[in-house]
């Protein structure tokens, strides 16, 4: 029998990974740099903002030693914009993920901002997708977990937290309905291939069981038809070979 | 499918209608007669019927019995599924509807049936997913409950999987608020 553990990550594991994201804090007290496995944190001096790992930011917030600056996409206006996108503009696909950070030069070109060498393509959690510099109007990979944890631990730092909360519920429902309709209309998206671009980590953890279940069911129902089709194809292929050899003989 | 899969074993035990082609003298107790005559009809469990239907004694001898589609896959049920997959209570047809159907598809060359089943599963899966998500909020009732009672074993398993995922995320969200 299979392991009793479910496939993939469970919600608490997803949330644990989310705590690695960088968030921006406004410190209230000085704090020297701390050596962590992921690198050393910046030195905190009160009026200056600094980017810290999310778990450390929550810890400092709980001790009232820092305030968290919520990312721009968590603002009610940005969330409302995304809800409009999800419900009115594109009713099939999810809202696109945030664009990679770019820097514009004076001549109208833009280049990808990349602190590492060229050729390294960054993805979450190494992209600063939840700091104050994150773009508005797009949900990063860990949007749901981060928003929930921020609302739970730092709701006084978020402008109009109750509105944000209700907008998050709307988003969650709208996007879950999309997941269901995508999975259960495999024909409408071309040969059973479905793009999950823009889906968050928690949403994946939530619907993994259902999605794989549906796919497995479809596969089992189609299995005999599939073997038949393969056999036919093989036979046809042989026929074609025969024809070719006949032609060769004729020549 | 695992060897110890209870659902697979129970699917094997589902009865399918068969017609004997041979004279079997000493099995009359199966249909309360003096012996099975060629042409007598009998419902046998799937595992036994399948073995007989595929077996043959010699070069050109017929198999001892012929299989027919079970009543849960009859023309009427197929027509009803074609009309509206959601309106049919699959569990009333057979608790292992899809399991039996897939085994039948292996034995019979029924393209149309395969297409109908596929559509049925997909359309009903959308509803199953919706119910799996809303199960706790709406507290089950009315038409929803009626629908859930009509799910066969495959769909019940799908419901459980979907519900577990939703519940896991919900539990986590509630825990974050508490801590």
UniProtKB/TrEMBL annotation, chain A:
Q: Name one GO cellular component term.
A: GINS complex
Domain named DNA replication complex GINS protein PSF2 N-terminal is located at 11-69
Q: Where is the composition biased (Acidic residues)?
A: 232-251
In the UniProt record, does the keyword Heme occur? no
Question: What does the record give as the function of this protein?
Answer: The GINS complex plays an essential role in the initiation of DNA replication. Has a role in chromosome segregation.
Give the multimer and partner information. Component of the GINS complex.
Name of the featured protein: DNA replication complex GINS protein PSF2
Q: From which source organism is this entry?
A: Trichoderma asperellum
TrEMBL record, chain B:
Task: Return the protein name.
Answer: DNA replication complex GINS protein PSF3
Q: Which SUPFAM superfamilies match?
A: GINS helical bundle-like, PriA/YqbF domain
The cellular component terms of Gene Ontology attached to this UniProt record, alphabetical and capped at eight, are:
GINS complex
Q: Where is the GINS subunit domain?
A: 72-173
Source species: Trichoderma asperellum (Filamentous fungus)
> Which residues belong to any copy of the DNA replication complex GINS protein PSF3 N-terminal domain?
4-53
What is the taxonomic lineage of the source species?
Eukaryota, Fungi, Dikarya, Ascomycota, Pezizomycotina
UniProt GO BP: mitotic DNA replication initiation
Q: Which domain of life is it from?
A: Eukaryota
**Family in the record:** Belongs to the GINS3/PSF3 family.
Principal subcellular localization: nucleus
Q: Which Pfam family name is an example for this entry?
A: Sld5
What the protein does comes down to: The GINS complex plays an essential role in the initiation of DNA replication.
Q: Where in the cell is it found?
A: Nucleus
Q: How does it assemble?
A: Component of the GINS complex.
Alphabetically ordered keywords of this record: DNA replication, Nucleus
